[in-house]
Amino acid sequence: MDALDTALQAIRARMKQAAEQAGRSADDVTLVAVSKTHPATSVQAALDRGQFSFGENRVQEAEAKFAPLRAANPRLRLHLIGALQTNKAADAVRIADVIESLDRPRLADALAAAAERAGRVPNLLVQVNIGDEPQKAGIPAADAPAFITACRVRFGSALQGLMCIPPADQPPAPFFRRLAGLAEDHGLAILSMGMSGDFEAAIACGATHIRVGSAIFGRRDAP
Ligand SMILES: *Cc1c(COP(=O)(O)O)cnc(C)c1O
Q1: Is 194 helix (H, G, I), strand (E, B) or coil?
Q2: What's the pTM value of the predicted model, to 2 decimals?
Q3: Which of 3, 76, 80, 187 has its Cα between 20 and 30 A from that of 49?
């Protein structure tokens, strides 16, 4: 057992306990290991330990790290979870299995055009600024219903759900519940919410995907 084994096993045990406490099955919650800033060797080590879904927030970093791992790891799933510039849409569409940060009409335009050209559409999640924080990415909560509806029309079944990052300085559960309600209103099955510090609360509120970085790979050096 090394540190990564211990960390992954501990997270999986906590996920199982949180799911069971909520009357859910742990099989219904996917762990997305957030490997941003960590090297490809860390990703490979996690793959070797049965972890197949990863999150990255920068397109270039994700491509450099994951393109070489694809061929040998057909189960690998790459989630892009960071703010996405429209000029990166084509690269994002090419490399991602899931883009979790669809948060504005101009990005929807860019992704739709890129998907058309590439002949492939990744799965998409609308990121909602669920705490309406000025510094945060995400469609404002008040604009979310219309935006989600428009994305549904445009992307069809590729639009699978919602993602959020709740305010850091407040209990997260009310925000998680609000996102879950929004997803339910729109008949969307996927809810990406919960990070190292709050994933158990997110699972209690219905998260289907949790994005955990530092609790798996250790702390990130400040950029
Ligand atoms: C970095 C990041 C995470 C992981 O955060 P940890 O606190 O390290 O678990 C999750 N989601 C997003 C959008 C991130 O940028």
Answers
A1: coil
A2: 0.97
A3: 80
